[in-house]
Design goal:
This protein is α+β, with helices and mostly antiparallel strands. The protein has six helices and ten strands; from the N terminus they run E-H-E-E-E-E-E-H-H-H-H-E-H-E-E-E. The chain has one domain (about 5-120, about 155-260): 3-methyladenine DNA Glycosylase, Chain A (Roll).
Length: about 290
């Protein structure tokens, strides 16, 4: 997993101003930060542009739903799928092209307790039902309630906290209102300290860093303006460990090898081929074009 030094330098917008299938493998090992939680990416999928990739949301052109994908590179495209989950993508290519990379899985390297609380099933109550539905936005507000939720979450293995696109979005607290959020941090890189994990700490920095790498790292991660996101250099995956294959669960262009992952990393999600299922036309996965 992500042991050792992780660079806190933010990636420039030009990093994403390339075809998605070139950006995708380069994202492995990078760190996506939203609020107090950060994830070192271990699995991603590339999706192409209009008329190019039948599995992409942009295949039939621009709509109100996919408009963010046609915006400037480096922004988050967050969509709702299967009537229950949010998934997040990073937009690629210059404005007007419509392409993105789905972030599928990763290792929580900051904000472990916060991620666990968000991933915990809420109590069987009206508020709890809302929390489960909206990815933890309505999680218990009191200190006692959050402590109880964290206690229930301890049973979730670390590797499963962001193992899969929906879990990753929940762990990072990404919801519908974050669609279009700029993930390019334009603050001064000189102000950012190096991020360091230690063996046995699962590479964590930020939350809990008083035990790992010093409290200044927590100050950086939690010091992002409210609602901001950033993609940091992290530590790029060794090219020899990167694998590629068909994308998960898509019903068209199913053999396109645009899923990329770090071989042997326990946070990578299992591959699943597409299985037809009944669902509403409003709930659309990244592998199927909306019907409206």
């Amino acid at each position: 997993m992500g042991l050792g030094k992780l660079s806190a330098a933010p990636l420039p917008r030009s990093f994403f101003d390339r075809p998605s299938h070139e950006v995708a493998p380069d994202l492995l090992g990078r760190v996506l930060v939203h609020g107090p939680v950060a994830v070192r990416l271990t699995e991603v999928e590339a999706y192409g542009g209009p008329g190019e990739d039948p599995a992409a949301h942009t295949y039939r052109g621009r709509t109100p739903r996919n408009a963010v994908m046609f915006g400037p590179p480096g922004h988050l495209y967050v969509y709702f799928t299967y009537g229950m989950h949010f998934c997040a993508n990073l937009v690629c290519l210059p404005e007007g092209h419509g392409s993105a990379v789905l972030v599928r899985a990763g290792e929580i390297v900051a904000g472990l307790d916060e991620a666990r609380t968000r991933r915990t099933p809420a109590p069987a109550s009206a508020a709890g039902t809302a929390a489960a539905f909206d990815g933890g936005r309505s999680a218990p507000a009191s200190a006692a309630g959050r402590a109880a939720a964290a206690g229930r979450a301890r049973g979730v293995p670390d590797r499963d906290l962001a193992r899969g696109p929906a879990r990753l979005a929940v762990a990072l607290g990404l919801l519908r209102e974050h669609n279009g959020l700029d993930a390019i941090w334009e603050g001064s890189p000189a102000a950012l300290p190096p991020l360091t994990g230690t063996p046995g700490s699962a590479g964590r920095f930020g939350h809990g860093s008083e035990h790992d790498a010093g409290p200044e790292h927590a100050t950086w991660l939690t010091g992002l303006p409210h609602g901001s996101a950033a993609v940091l250099e992290g530590r790029p995956a060794d090219p020899g460990t990167i694998r590629s294959g068909p994308r998960t669960g898509v019903s068209t262009a199913k053999d396109t090898p645009w899923r990329f992952w770090i071989d042997g990393d326990p946070t990578v999600s299992p591959y699943r081929a597409h299985v037809p299922r009944r669902r509403s036309s409003a709930a659309t996965s990244v592998g199927e074009t909306p019907s409206s």
